[in-house]
Each structure stands twice: as structure tokens, then as C-alpha cells.
Amino acid sequence: MAGFKEHVKAFYFEVILSPYRCPQCQGPLRMTDTSKCSCACGNIFDPTLEFQKSACCGTKLVRRTYHYACSHCHEVVPSHYIFDERVFDKEYFREMMQEHRRRVRQEREEMKKFLAESRSGTLFLTEEPRLESLDGFVQDLEAFIQSQPHVPLDSGFEPKSIFNMDRYRSHILSCLPNQGVRFSDIAQVDENIRRDKAWRFITLVFMQNDRLIDLAQEGDNIWVQRVQNEAHA
Ligand SMILES: [Zn+2]
Ligand SMILES: [Zn+2]
Fold it and tell me: How far is the CA of 60 from the centre of ligand 1 (A)?
């Protein structure tokens, strides 16, 4: 379970940081510690202080010992950059997901244009997958993140079925033909259909981030394809 939580956390930070760039060099940012994000240029800073504004006064935050506060009226403001399920902001995450996907779509469009202009070979998979087409996936993910505090980590509680991303990953790779496969045609691993779908999809999202596979919309389904050798792309 801890491993899965780490994955969800990594995904959460990727989404939350996706609209931002390093203020010094415009490079991409990574969350490297609690309240710290880093850029390859060596710039390390607190993203809450840098990017977040208070909802009350729309101004900069200040850091107190255990929380952040509005620098104008001193109201406590929960940070968007601390992965704490108790203050997980559903609406904000939803917004950031949309922004993240808009950005991915835009990058794909730019790549498409670039490849068309350079008269490169055929291009496929330019349509971004729509998470909504997977019945209830976003809700399932949100529900999962929100449900975690109810399972105390030290309680010895062992859910009957626990998510094992490595198992899903090898399963998907083992049944993924070269020409690709439809999301719905990947054999089920867990007996619970809804849960299996959510876990399968989460694994695919991480596999896409690792550049192992590509996901593309195909009608009401999602097409899953191995990433071709970069040299031929
Ligand atoms: Zn930088
Ligand atoms: Zn305020």
C-alpha cells in the first residue's frame, strides 16, 4: 500500500506542478522534499511561497512553524504542495488535472506541427485520451486519495486486495501486442471490475510517464501502444 501511495503522491505533484516553470531558468520542476521543489539548474525553493496566493486576500503567503498563512490578514491557508489527504482539495486537483491535460494536448499539437513541417514520417496517436471516457476513473482516483486517512498506517490493517503496480505493469507488458491493444481488451487482474479498471488505468498513466507506452483516444476506448524506438518516431 505504501508503494501505491508513493505513486499517487508522485502523480499528484506532477499534476500540481505542471503549470509552473523554474522562475530562474524556465526549466521543469520536481518536488524533492516536503515543501521543496527543485530545478536542474540548482534552484531549490518552497512552491507554496512562490506560486500560491491566499484565497482571502489574493496575496502572498508566509510560512509559520506548522502551516502557511495569508501575509495580509494572517488567515491559515492549506498548502496545495503538501500531499496531505486530510486537506486534499478535490476542486483544485480537478482544475490542475484539466490544466495538465490541456498542456499535454498542446505539446502534442506542437509536436504534430513540428513533424508535419519537417516532413517527417507518419505520425499517430495525437489525440489525447479522455479520462471521462473511462467510466468513473477520475472519481475513483479522488475517492481513493480521500479514503486513505481512514486506514491508519500503523493499524496492521491489510485490505484483501492490495494494489501492486509492478504486477499490473508486467501483466500489461506481457499481453501487449506490437500493434497495440484497446484498454478494454486488456485482461482483468483484480476480480472487482471497477477497481481493476482504475488500477489498470493508473498503471498505464505511470507507464506513459516512463515512456514505455503511449495512450490515445479511440472512440469510447483508449488505444494502448508500445512507444516505438525514438529514432523512428
Ligand atoms: Zn532552474
Ligand atoms: Zn487574507
Answer: 21
Q: What is the pTM of this model?
A: 0.50
The bound ligand whose nearest atom lies closest to the alpha carbon of 70 is 2
Each residue's pLDDT, cut to its tens digit, for the chain (233 residues) gives 455 667 777 777 888 888 899 999 999 999 998 889 999 999 999 999 999 999 899 999 999 877 899 999 998 888 888 876 555 566 777 777 777 777 777 777 776 676 666 554 444 444 445 555 555 555 656 555 555 444 444 444 444 456 778 888 899 999 888 888 988 889 888 887 877 887 788 788 878 877 788 887 777 778 888 887 544 43
In a domain, 32, yes or no: yes
CATH number of residue 207's parent domain: 1.10.10
- Measured from the alpha carbon of residue 71, the closest ligand is 2
Total domain count for the chain? 2
Return the ligand number nearest the Cα of 73.
2
Q: How many CB atoms lie within 10 A of CB 35?
A: 15
C-alpha 82 to ligand 1 mean position (Å): 21
Question: For residue 57, what are the domain limits?
Answer: 2-77
224 exposure class (CB count in 10 Å sphere: 0-12, 13-18, 19+): buried
